[in-house]
């Protein structure tokens, strides 16, 4: 922006309350010390040193000059372009940014708070109607909480969103736009967003609001992390958190660093990510539901992946070529699928601990044969937890075992199997939060012709869907 102040000429990032210091060395990451901020400051960025603190999901983003350095989203035909920063555990805070619409003829541009997924957030946006509108966004459902007229959307405006408890308040250039009660997740990252628009962003800052402002306040890292080239090795250093699987009550971990991935990482043996956040970039930067996307990680037969956070965009997540084990793997926003299992008829796959959010459709896709066990897992805002492929060109008899899983805000069903191929689903200790009923086990007639499979029934039957009503708790 033309009126850059001295504070605009330096970039500050703080991931905790009143913290200053240096993060320990992390394999394939370089820690860069940053100055401390005031006690209530969680984050600030003016893009003078680039945009390394942000993970992209859709659109064409770059740092350009407009009086000073700003972050520009140039692809006006992108349905939903966004970048995210901060921690998924942040709760009560105020996020503020300067926004200038370059092309708002068809869409909007704004700032987001409590982004629990790439399409679930509160946002205050400048719109094509010449208004600033406060919205609650969950997938394709957009709820307006109020709006105000904007005299010149093509000028720089300061947008601010306060989230405190269940109350969401938006401000335009210091004046209150609207306030209302929100029903989305009570925690999440910040974001800059456009939809069918191009815009510039600058001077982003986040401040804590009241007690319990962020559950990550005591996190020790206070350095930005700059990634090196995509790793080709299949094993990492052992100075990482333990791999013991978490229970479903475990809190989501705070990322110890970030790694942009431009090409699929091949894993054989064991890779311990130390809770680094990996996210797609370049050719892996899509946020679509395209079935042909490449994964972030591709696991060889017998490989183990543990203590990893997948951020947005997550592309096609993880592919297992044969038997594999995923321990404490966390998907902050599921891309096409969280993981796809492609092994042979005797393959065994285990997902132990971890969690996933924001799956428009499936979380786990079973295309190969063998048995998948999902245990001690938490899943939120999703379509299906598990699907045995209904129309793969090569079909198999498949089995899934679901144990000790908490499923929050499901949109569809828990598991789907093909009874004509002899699939089985064995389910126990499942807690469903936010719904009074749910199709726990859906039965289909699958095919190998590529046609949509036919749904033939739901519920326990003692043959294919193996569980008792007492195994399912609704809250």
Automatic annotation (TrEMBL):
Its cofactor is Ca(2+). Belongs to the polysaccharide lyase 3 family. It catalyses: Eliminative cleavage of (1->4)-alpha-D-galacturonan to give oligosaccharides with 4-deoxy-alpha-D-galact-4-enuronosyl groups at their non-reducing ends. GO terms for molecular function: pectate lyase activity. InterPro entries: Pectate_lyase_PlyH/PlyE-like, Pectin_lyas_fold, Pectin_lyase_fold/virulence, TAT_signal. PANTHER family: PECTATE LYASE F-RELATED (PTHR33407:SF9). Keywords: Calcium, Lyase, Secreted, Signal. This is pectate lyase. It is an enzyme of class 4 (lyase). It is found in: Secreted. Its EC number is 4.2.2.2. One of its GO terms (cellular component) is extracellular region. GO terms for biological process: pectin catabolic process. It comes from the Bacteria. Residues 216-251 are annotated as: Disordered.
């Amino acid at each position: 922006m033309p009126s850059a102040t001295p504070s605009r000429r330096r970039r500050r990032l703080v991931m905790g309350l009143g913290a200053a210091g240096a993060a320990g060395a992390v394999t394939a990451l370089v820690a860069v010390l940053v100055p401390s901020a005031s006690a209530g400051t969680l984050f600030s960025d003016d893009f003078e040193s680039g945009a390394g603190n942000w993970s992209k999901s859709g659109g064409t983003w770059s740092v350009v000059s407009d009086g000073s350095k700003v972050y520009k989203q140039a692809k006006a035909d992108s349905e939903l372009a966004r970048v995210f920063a901060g921690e998924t555990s942040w709760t009560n805070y105020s996020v503020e940014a300067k926004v200038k619409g370059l092309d708002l003829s068809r869409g909007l541009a704004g700032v987001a708070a409590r982004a629990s997924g790439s399409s679930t957030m509160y946002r205050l946006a400048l719109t094509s109607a010449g208004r600033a509108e406060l919205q609650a966004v969950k997938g394709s459902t957009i709820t307006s909480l109020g709006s105000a007229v904007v005299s010149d959307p093509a000028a720089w405006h300061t947008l601010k969103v306060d989230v405190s408890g269940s109350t969401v308040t938006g401000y335009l250039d210091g004046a209150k736009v609207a306030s209302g009660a929100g029903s989305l997740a009570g925690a999440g990252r910040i974001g800059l967003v456009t939809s069918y628009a191009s815009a510039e962003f600058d001077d982003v800052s986040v401040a804590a609001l009241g007690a319990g402002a962020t559950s990550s306040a005591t996190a020790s890292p206070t350095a930005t992390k700059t990634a090196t080239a995509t790793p080709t090795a299949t094993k990492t250093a052992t100075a990482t958190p333990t791999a013991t699987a978490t229970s479903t009550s475990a809190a989501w971990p705070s990322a110890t660093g970030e790694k942009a991935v431009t090409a699929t990482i091949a894993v054989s043996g064991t890779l311990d990510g130390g809770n680094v956040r990996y996210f797609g970039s370049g050719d892996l930067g899509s946020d679509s539901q395209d079935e042909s996307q490449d994964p972030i990680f591709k696991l060889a037969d017998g490989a183990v992946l543990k203590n990893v956070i997948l951020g947005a965009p997550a592309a096609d997540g993880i592919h297992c070529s044969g038997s594999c084990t995923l321990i404490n793997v966390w998907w902050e926003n599921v891309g096409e699928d969280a993981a796809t299992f492609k092994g042979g008829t005797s393959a065994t796959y285990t997902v132990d601990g971890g969690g996933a959010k924001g799956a428009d459709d499936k979380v786990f896709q079973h295309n190969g044969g063998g048995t998948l066990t999902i245990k001690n897992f938490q899943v939120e805002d999703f379509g299906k937890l598990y699907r045995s492929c209904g129309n793969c060109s090569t079909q198999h008899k498949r089995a899934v075992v679901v144990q000790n899983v908490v499923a929050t805000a499901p949109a569809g069903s828990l598991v789907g199997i093909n009874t004509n191929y002899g699939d089985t689903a064995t389910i126990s200790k499942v807690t469903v939060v936010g719904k009074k009923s749910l199709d726990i086990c859906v039965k289909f007639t699958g095919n190998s012709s590529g046609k949509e499979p036919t749904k033939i029934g739901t519920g326990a039957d003692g043959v294919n869907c193996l569980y008792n009503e007492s195994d399912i708790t609704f809250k």
